[in-house]
Amino acid sequence: MNGQLILFALLAIVAVVCGIMMVVQENPVRSALNLVMVLFSIAILFLTLNAAFIAAIQIIVYAGAIMVLFVFVIMLLNMGSGEQLVDRLRPLGLRWVSAVIALVLGLIISWAITGNLRSAPAGTTLSPALVGPREIGLSLYAANSVWLFPFEIVSILLLVAAIGAVMLAKRRI
Amino acid sequence: MHGIQPGVPLGYYLTLSAVLFVIGVAGVIVKRNPIVIFMCVELMLNAVNLTLVAFSRYQSTLTPAGTLTSPQHYLDGQMMVIFVMAVAAAEVSVGLGILVSIFRQRTSISVDEIDLMRG
Amino acid sequence: MSSEFSIAWLIPLFPLIGFLINGLFGSKTKKFAGILATAAVFASFVIAYILFTKVQSLDEGHKQVTVFLAPWLSNFMIGAADPTGIKPLQVNFELLIDPLSCLMMLIITGVGGLIHLYSISYMAADKGFARFFTYLNLFVFFMLLLVMGNNLPILFIGWEGVGLCSYLLIGFFYEKKSAGDAAKKAFIMNRIGDVGVLIGMFMLFQYFGTLDFYKGQADIDGIVTAAKNLPAITTGTTITVICLMLFFGATGKSAQVPLYTWLPDAMEGPTPVSALIHAATMVTAGVYMVSRLHSLFELSDTAMMVICATGLFTALWAALIGLAQNDIKRVLAYSTVSQLGYMFAACGAGMFAAGMYHVMTHAFFKACLFLGSGSVIHAVEHAMHAKHAHGHGDEADVAHAEHGDSHDAHAIPAGGPDPHDPQDMRNMGGLGGKIRITFLTMSAATLAIAGIWPFAGFWSKDEILWRLYNVHSPLNVLIWGVGAITALITAFYMFRMIMKTFFGQPRTEAAKNAHESSPLMTGPLVLLALLSFSTGWLVAPFEKFREFLAPSVETPGYTPTILKPELEHTLGFGLMAVIIVVIVACYLAYRSSKNNELLAPATRANHSVLSAGWIYNVLLNKYFIDELNNLTWVRGGKNLSQWLWKTFDVGVVDGIVNGVAGVTAWIGSGLRKTQTGYVRSYALTMALGIIAVLLLILAPFAHGVK
C-alpha cells in the first residue's frame, strides 16, 4: 500500500461517484457540474501518469471551454430547473435495462483487459520524466513524425466545425 | 534516466476507465435531456482518453526491450489524446449548434419528442 | 429407288399449286377457280395412272418403290453412343409407290376429279366459290400425302391435314351456327382419335426403331417388313396395345363406334364435300392405315378380333339408325358408317384385299349416291325458291343453305317435316319422271350398295361376307349372320330412300316443279354409275384385284380363313335372293303417295316403352347417343375446367402468388415496429449490439492469450 495507490483510489472514487451522480441527477446544471468534477479528477490522474501537458490542456480545453459551452447552451435553452420531460419509452423500464447493460458491458471489458494483460518482463521500469510541451512539440513537428499530417487535418476540421456551428445555429439563413 | 517501479498496476487504470465508459453508456440510454446525453458522450470520450494515456505510460512495460528505438514512440497515446480532444471540441460545438437549432422553438426539451423518423 | 418413278412428287404438287393459286388469288380467278382446281386434280390422275401401269410392270417381290425427296428429322448424334438411350431416328420426306398406294391415288384423284367437275356447277351460285375449290384442292393434297408417304409421320401429316380440311369444308357455310358446331365436333372427335395414333407411333418407334413402312433412304427394315419377320409367339401384349391404339385412331377418322357421331352432323357441309370426304376418301384413311400395317395387325389376334367385332357392331348399329331417318343426306351418312364397318370387319378377319376392294366399290357408288342426292336437293331447292320468287329465277339469290336437323341436345320430335327443308324426303316424291338421269344413276348406285348381281357392290360385299363365314372361329356363323342381317337392313333403307324420293306422287308444290341439273352435274353421275355397274366383272374382277394388291397387303404364311369354295356361290346368291325379296317388299310398301312408314303415324307417336312407336323414337333420335355424350364428356369436361379455374388457378396458384406477397407484407409490417423514431431505443439497440459483437470477438480468447 503506497501513496500512489491511495491517491489513485481517491481520485477513482471521486470520478465514479461524480459520474454516477451526473447520470442520476435530474437537473442539467447539476449534471454539468458533476461532469466538471469528473474532468478534474481525470486531469489529476493524467498527472499521475506523467502526462503533464495532457492534464493541462484537459483542464483548459475540456473543463474550461467545452463545459462552459455546455452551461451556456443549458442557460440559453432555459433548462435551469429540472422539469419533468416527456418519457415515451416508459414501458421499457430503461433504468433497469441500462443498469444491467452497463454491468454486463463493464464486466466484459474488464475481463477482456485484465485477463489478457501480459505481465511485465522482470525488471522493466518506467521513465520518471514528465511529458511537457517540449516533448509534445517535438513529437508533433519533427521532420519524420507521423503526427504532422493529422495535425494539419485537424486544423481544417476545426475550421469546418466553426463554420458549421455558425451555419447550424443561425436563426435565418 | 533510471526507471521507477510502477506503483499502480495498469489494470487498475483500465478498469476505472471501463467503469466510467459504462456509466456513460448507461447515461446515454436513460437520460431524456439532449444536453445531458451529450455530456454522457463526453464522459465516454474521457474514459477512452484515460485508457490511451495509461497505455502510453505503461508502454515500456508492455513491449519487449529494444523494439522501440526512440522515446518519442512512447508518446503515441498522448498524441492520440490531443487529437481526440480537438475532435471532441469540434463535435461539441457542432452538436450543440444542432441542438440549439432544433430546440429553440420548442417548449419541451425531450429527445423523445424528435420522432419524425418513426416507421 | 428407280428414277422413272421420280415423277411421283408431281402428284401431290398439282393440287398444292391449285390451292396456292386459288387461295392467294381467289378474288381474281373467280369463276376460273373451278376449272383450275379440276384441271390440277385430273393432271394428278394422269400421272397416277402412268405410275399405276409402271407398277404393274414391275416384277414380283420388288413391287415397293420408294422415292426419296428430302431429309427431314434425324437425330443420329443423340443416342448413338449410348445403346440403352434414345435410338437414332431418321424420318425423311419419302414417297412409297406400291400397289396399295397406287390404288388409293387413283381413287382419290379419279373420284376427286369427277367431284371437282360436279362442284363447278353445284357451287356456281355461292359467293365462296373460289374458297371452296381452295379447300378442296388442299384436301386432295393432304389425302395424297397420307396415302403416298413411306413413313408414319408423313401419313400423320396427311391425317391431320384432312381433318383440318374436313373442319374447313364442313363449316363452309360459316354463317350458320349449326355448321360451325358440326365442324368443331368433327375436328375434335378426329383429334381424340389422333391421340391413339400418336401413342401407337411412339410405341412403334420404341419397338422397331424406325417409323418407315418399307426400307427407304434410312436403310433400316421398315415396319411392315420387320413385322412380317417376327414370329407371332414373341410379340406379346406390346404389339396388341400398339394395334389397339392405332385402331382407336382409325375409329376417329373412319367413324366407327365410339367416335362416329360426327359423320352424320358433317352433312352440314355442301354435298360435294360429303361425297368426297365423307364417302370416298377421308373416311377410308383408317382402312388404308390398317391395310398398310397389315403385317403388324396380323401379329395380334386380339386386335384383329376387336377390329372385326367393332366393324360388325358399327355396321348393324348404324344401319338400324338409318332406317328411321328422314333427311336424305343423313340416310347416306349412316349408310357410310355402316359400310365402313364392313370394311373393318373384312380387315379384322384377315382379308385386307377384300376390305380394300369394298373401299374401291364403295367410293364409286357412295360418291354417285351423294352427288345424286345433291342433284335432287338442288332440283327441289330451286323449285322452292322459284316458287317464292315468283319466277324471276335469279341464281345469285339462291344461297345453298344446306342444313340438317337441329343439333342442340334436345330430342327430335316425330312430327311433320319443315316445308322449307329441301333435304327432307317427306317433301319429295314423284321425282322419277322429272329428273330422269339422276333417278337412273341413283338407282344403279342403290342396286350396287344393296348387293345385287352384277353391280359392283355384290362382288365386294359378297366376298366380305363369305370370308367372314370362313374365319377360324366357333362363332363364324354368328359373325356371318350379323353381316347378312345388316345387308338386309341396308337394302331396305336404301330402297326406302329411293321410293320416297322418286316414286309415288309429289308431296309438295316444289316436288312438282323440279327439273334436271346441268350436264356438268349429270356427267360425273353417269360415269360413276357406270363404274358401279361394271367394276365387278369388267374393270377389276376381284381375283385380278387381289392378285394386284397382294404384295402390299398379304403376308405369306398367314391364313385367317379356310376356304370352302363350294359354299361361295350358294351363300352369295342365296343372300341376294333374300335381298331381292326385301326390296320387293319395300317397293310394295312405299309406292303409294301417302307419307306412310310401315308404322302408322299414330303408332309412331306412341312413346310408351315396348311399343313400336318407342323403338321408332329411339332410332329416329340416334339412340340418344349424342345426348349421352353431351351429358358425360362435354358436361364433365366443362365441370373439370370450371373446377380447375375456380379452385385451382384462382385459389391455389393465385393464392400462392398473393400469399408470397402477403407474407412479405406481413414481415414488413412486423419489421416496421423496430423503427420507433426514438433515439434512446436506437441507443439501446446499439449497446446490445456492441455486447454481442464483443462476445463474438472475445470468445476465442476465453482462456487467455498466450
Strand content of chain C: under 5%
Order of helical and strand elements of chain B: HHH
CATH class of chain B: Mainly Alpha
Give the radius of gyration of chain C: 32 Å
Helix content of chain C: 55-70%
**Sheet with most strands of chain C:** 2 strands, antiparallel
- Strand order, largest beta sheet of chain C: 1-2
| Uncertain stretches of 5 or more adjacent residues of chain B | none
Count of folded domains of chain B = 1
End-to-end distance of chain C? 93 Å
Strand tally of chain B: 0
Gyration radius of chain B (Cα, Å) is 20 Å
CATH architecture of chain B: Orthogonal Bundle
User: Can you give the mean pLDDT of chain C?
Assistant: 80
SSE arrangement of chain C, N to C:
HHEEHHHHHHHHHHHHHHHHHHHHHHHH
Number of helices of chain C: 26
Greatest interface (CB-CB under 8 A), with counts per chain: A-B, 94 and 83 residues
Strand-residue fraction of chain B? under 5%
Main sheet record of chain B:
none
**Secondary structure tally: strands of chain C:** 2
Task: Briefly note the structural class of the backbone of chain C.
Answer: mainly alpha
Can you summarize this structure?
The complex is a heterotrimer of chains A (173), B (119) and C (706). Chain A has 173 residues and is mainly alpha-helical.
